[in-house]
Design a protein that fits this description.
By secondary structure, this protein is mostly helical. 61% of the residues lie in helices and 5% in strands. It has a two-stranded antiparallel sheet. A hairpin with an 8-residue loop joins strand 1 and strand 2.
Length: 119
């Protein structure tokens, strides 16, 4: 009998999980890179990908729910823009682990140097 772990949806207030979930897709990361250069239309964002318009819209919805993209309004044009604040929050979280791994790698380097000097 197999036991399957249930995937839990992030809590509505768990912004960090939504950000990392949005960043999990290479398509969405590419869209964010485009938006880092300025405001883009949906068709401009979709241009590099071979995807249907509904699929592109789903990716944008994930980015919007994560707070990474905002939709503007200019007559019939619905431009999208990058909202970088959630990326700063994610970077702050990851920075704790960067320090941890740097410390560990520094200790490993010292250990390896001590082994080498014993020879």
């Amino acid at each position: 009998m197999a036991i399957y772990a249930r995937r839990r949806k992030p809590e509505p207030h768990d912004h960090l999980s939504a950000v990392f979930g949005a960043l999990a897709s290479p398509v969405r990361r590419a869209m964010l890179e485009q938006l880092a250069g300025g405001v883009r239309s949906v068709s401009e964002l979709a241009e590099p990908f071979r995807m249907s318009q509904p699929t592109i819209s789903k990716h944008l919805k994930v980015l919007e729910k994560a707070g990474l993209v905002v939709q503007g309004r200019d007559a019939q044009w619905r431009p999208r823009a990058l909202k970088a604040a959630p990326l700063k929050e994610a970077n702050t979280y990851l920075e704790k682990f960067r320090k941890l791994w740097e410390d560990r790698l520094d200790r490993l380097e010292l250990y390896l140097d001590s082994l080498q000097s014993r020879r």
